[in-house]
UniProtKB/TrEMBL annotation:
Belongs to the CLN5 family. The gene is cln5. GO terms for molecular function: hydrolase activity, acting on glycosyl bonds; palmitoyl-(protein) hydrolase activity. Residues 1-22 form the signal peptide. Keywords: Glycoprotein, Signal. This is Bis(monoacylglycero)phosphate synthase CLN5.
Length: 332
C-alpha cells in the first residue's frame, strides 16, 4: 500500500477530514512507538519563553563536564526526590511524582557532581502550549536539557528520597559518558510528559514514550553498562510515569500543515479549543487543576491532541484514560 493510497480521509468525531498519508514507514506500516526525533543541533530558545526558575544556575555556562584521570575511580549514585519538594514537602512523594538524577564522586579529588535532565521553562509549559492571539498555531516552550553541576546536596536527596551508591566506573568510562551526554543533549531537545499506551496491561502496545528526567537516567545507565560498568541496587528502582491510554493514534501534521492552510481550519480550531482548557499555569496547584480539567475533558470527549516531535497526533482515548504510576524499571 503506498502512502497515497492510505491517504484517504479519516473522519473524526467532528467530521474533520484529515489526511493520514505521512509518517508511514516500513512499507506503509507505522512504527510504534513513534521514535523520538533527534535534531542535528539544539536551537536557541524563543525569547517568549520565560523561566520561573533559571535553568542549571550553578552549571558550567557552556555545559562543560570536567575531565577525569583514567586511573580515577568514580562512584555512581542513584538520586531521587519528590518534585518541588522544597515547596510542598513530601506531599508529591505520596503521589510518587519524583525527580531523578545521577551523582558522581571522584576518589582521587573527592569532588562530587550531580547530573540531571529537566525542563528549561518548567513542567506546565512542556505539557501544555500557550495560545497567543497573534499566532495561529499553539506555541510551545518545551525544551528540556541536561545539567551537570558541582556538588551533591546529600540531605536534599536522602531525606525524603533516595541517595544510593549503585556502582563504580573508571575515569575513562566517565569521560566517554561525558562525551555521550553532550551529544545526547545537543540532539534530544524537547521534553515529553506523556507515555501513551493501548491499555494498562503488561502486553499493551506502546504508541509514544515520554522523554523526561527518568528517561535520561535510564539512557545514561544503559550507556554506562555499554561502556562496561556494573550497576546494582539493594532496593527496587521505581520511576514516575504519566500515562495516557488510547486506541491507535492518527497522524495529523505539523504546524504549517494544520495551521497554514485553510483546508484544515476545523482541525486547527479544534486543537486550539482543546488546549484552551489548559490555560497558562502560574503554579503547581494551577497545573494540578488543569490536569484534573484535562481528565474531565478527555473522559467526556474521548479525544486528545498529542504534540510529539513537533507534530500533532489524534488519540482516541479509552478508559482508564490517564494514570500516574510509580513502577519498577530495573537497572540494566
Ligand atoms: C511557563 O511556566 C512558568 C510557571 O510554571 C511561568 O512563570 C512562565 O511565565 C511560563 N510561560 C512561558 C512562556 O515560559
Ligand atoms: C545542555 O543544553 C543546555 C541548553 O543549551 C545547556 O544549558 C547545558 O549546559 C547543556 N548541558 C550539557 C551537560 O552539555
Ligand atoms: C522532607 O519532608 C519534610 C516534611 O514533608 C520537609 O519538612 C523537609 O523540608 C523535606 N526535606 C528536604 C531536604 O527537603
Ligand atoms: C559530596 O560532597 C559534599 C561536600 O564535600 C559532602 O558533604 C557530601 O557528603 C558528598 N556526597 C557524596 C554522595 O559523596
Ligand atoms: C502477555 O503475553 C504473554 C505472552 O504472549 C502471555 O503469556 C500473557 O498471558 C499475557 N498477559 C496478559 C495479561 O495478557
Ligand atoms: C511540515 O510538514 C510538511 C509535510 O507535511 C513538510 O513538507 C514540512 O517541511 C514540515 N515543516 C517543518 C517545519 O517541519
Ligand atoms: C515499585 O514497582 C513495583 C512493580 O512495578 C510495584 O509492585 C511496587 O509496589 C512499586 N513500589 C512502590 C513503593 O510503589
Amino acid at each position: 500500500m503506498s502512502p497515497a493510497e492510505v491517504g484517504l480521509c479519516l473522519c473524526l468525531s467532528l467530521l474533520l477530514c484529515v489526511p493520514v498519508a505521512a509518517q508511514l514507514k516500513n512499507e506503509g506500516r507505522q512504527q510504534w512507538p513513534v521514535p523520538y526525533r533527534r535534531f542535528d543541533h539544539r536551537p536557541a530558545s524563543d525569547s517568549y519563553c520565560e523561566a520561573l526558575y533559571p535553568f542549571c544556575p550553578t552549571g558550567d555556562r557552556d555545559g562543560r563536564i570536567p575531565y577525569m584521570r583514567d586511573t580515577d575511580v568514580i562512584s555512581v549514585y542513584r538520586l531521587q526526590t519528590p518534585v518541588w519538594e522544597f515547596k510542598y514537602g513530601d506531599l508529591l512523594g505520596k503521589f510518587h511524582i519524583m525527580h531523578d538524577a545521577i551523582g558522581f564522586s571522584s576518589s582521587e579529588t573527592g569532588a562530587n557532581y550531580t547530573m540531571e535532565w529537566y525542563e528549561l521553562f518548567q513542567l506546565g509549559n512542556c505539557t501544555f502550549p500557550h495560545l497567543r492571539p497573534e499566532l495561529a498555531a499553539p506555541f510551545w516552550c518545551n525544551q528540556g536539557a541536561a545539567c551537570f553541576f558541582d556538588g551533591i546536596d546529600d540531605s536534599h536527596w536522602s531525606q525524603n528520597g533516595t541517595l544510593e551508591k549503585i556502582g563504580e566506573i573508571t575515569g575513562s568510562q566517565f569521560n566517554d559518558m561525558a562525551q555521550w551526554v553532550q551529544d545526547d543533549n545537543e540532539t534530544g531537545i524537547y521534553y515529553e510528559t506523556w507515555t501513551v499506551h493501548s491499555d494498562p496491561g503488561p502486553n499493551a502496545t506502546a504508541w509514544f514514550d515520554s522523554y523526561d528526567c527518568s528517561q535520561f537516567v535510564h539512557r545514561t545507565y544503559r550507556k554506562l553498562t555499554q561502556l562496561g560498568a556494573k550497576l546494582s541496587s539493594r532496593s527496587q528502582t521505581n520511576y514516575t510515569k504519566i500515562y495516557l491510554y488510547s486506541g491507535e493514534p492518527t497522524y495529523l501534521g505539523n504546524d504549517s500543515a494544520i495551521f497554514g492552510q485553510p483546508a484544515l481550519k476545523n482541525l486547527a480550531v479544534d486543537i486550539r479549543k482543546f488546549y484552551h482548557t489548559f490555560r497558562p499555569h502560574q503554579s503547581f496547584i494551577d497545573l494540578t487543576l488543569s490536569l484534573l480539567e484535562a481528565y474531565k475533558k478527555v473522559v467526556l470527549d474521548k479525544s486528545f491532541y498529542l504534540y510529539y516531535n513537533f507534530e500533532y497526533w489524534h488519540l482516541p482515548m479509552k478508559p482508564p484514560y490517564m494514570q500516574i504510576t510509580y513502577e519498577e524499571v530495573p537497572l540494566p
